[in-house]
Amino acid sequence: MKKWIATSLTFCSLGFGLAQAQDNVLTPAETAEGYKLLFDGTLKSFQDNFVDYVKGDSTNTSLDAGWKVNATDKTLTLPTGNTNNKSDTRSKKKYKDFEIRWTYKTDGNQGVIYRAMVTQDRIWLTGVEYAINNVTNLGKDNPGAAYDLYAPPNPVPYNDFSTGKWNNARIVCIGDSVEHWSNEVKVVGYKLHSQNFWTQYNVSKWVSEGPRTLTNLVPGRQDVGTGFITEGYIGLQGDHGGKWQIKNFMITETPCFGPIKPDGSVCVTTGIAGAKALHSSFPVFRTGGGLEVDLSEEKVSAARLVSLDGTVADHGLISAGGRKATFSGNLKAGVYFLKLDMAGGSVTRKINVF
């Protein structure tokens, strides 16, 4: 008897969700949603968009030489970090509502700070930080956390990869609402200046550090009506140890909340490259040690199951004129990416095999 497999997990795109078809290049859906690459694989692009963080200086143009580009794989690299703060950077431009996407790997401790100011000695004192670490036992400092404010769920469900593994990250800010995503899973959501925010703030490092302009316009004040910082710089923390590699760093100022769709979009609902979007209710069945995927509306040329570490677990046998894919391997229970290639492009869906 066939056993139906749950496919209710979030759709994701091969373009961003699993691996870029071409690194540092926008997909048609990303272009349609207004994305701009802040790093396109060249040092010049990074220099065009980022400068050193300098307290009290919003016009400086310098950029620390510690930030380099690997000529082989076109990744932005901070080799070791710099504890004297020289490698902290900020965007040249301030952003209000936005979504940032980027791909990274690390063997240390870094962070991406947003809606930051230039009012303090260190950029992390002026904005909320998306935490980046190569370990996942740090609670509110775990990868994907709003650093020292909101922890991702425990146990960690989103398969952050440590040293030597690539991870996908997203930050979405609209008004007072914020989401953090790690490897296609929403791990943090909060509202700036809410009562819950202040509850977390009052037991955080910012209390011991003294009044800081972290979220409200008047440092150290929690009064109703004080407000929150509605726009600020994007910062890359470079003052900690550990090698940090970044690619596919992009931003849009017309964001939407929610998961990434198969074509790489969040707001746009059209399919990829003129092809139909993958039907949301196509059935996947467990057949002995393998799987069977039945497609009533799509015609596929190839199918693969990919493990969360990026390795191919099995190739599908295509039959019924491209309407069926069968995986005969002895699959272990767990979460996989089901990748289907069609005439108009590729789509990827997470499935839970049990």
Q: What is the C-alpha radius of gyration, as a whole number of Å? A: 21 Å
**Shape verdict:** globular
Any idea of the CATH class of the largest domain? Mainly Beta
Structural class: mainly beta
Note the beta-strand portion.
Answer: 25-35%
H/I helix tally: 5
CATH architecture of the largest domain: Sandwich
Classified in CATH, the superfamily of the largest domain is: Exo-inulinase, domain 1
Number of strands: 23
Q: Which sheet architecture does the biggest sheet show?
A: 8 strands, antiparallel
What would you say about this model in short?
The protein has 354 residues and is mainly beta. Helices cover 8% and strands 34% of the residues. It has 2 domains: 3-9 and 271-353, Immunoglobulin-like; 34-252, Sandwich (Jelly Rolls), CATH 2.60.120.560.
Walk me through this protein's architecture.
The chain is mainly beta and 354 residues long. The chain folds into two domains: 3-9 and 271-353, Immunoglobulin-like (Sandwich); 34-252, Jelly Rolls, CATH 2.60.120. 8% of the residues lie in helices and 34% in strands. It is built from five helices and 23 strands. The protein has helices at residues 14-18, 28-32, 43-49, 195-201, 205-209, and strands at residues 3-4, 11-12, 36-37, 50-52, 68-69, 76-78, 89-95, 98-106, 109-116, 128-133, 167-174, 177-182, 185-191, 232-236, 244-252, 284-287, 290-294, 302-306, 312-315, 317-319, 324-327, 334-342, 345-353. The strands form four sheets. Strands 3, 5, 6, 8, 11, 12, 13 and 15 form an eight-stranded antiparallel beta sheet that branches. Strands 1-16-17-21-20 form a five-stranded antiparallel beta sheet, with no helix packed on it. It has a five-stranded antiparallel beta sheet with strand order 2-23-22-18-19. Strand 22 (334-342) and strand 23 form a beta hairpin. The longest helix has 7 residues, at 43-49. The radius of gyration is 21 Å and the shape is globular.
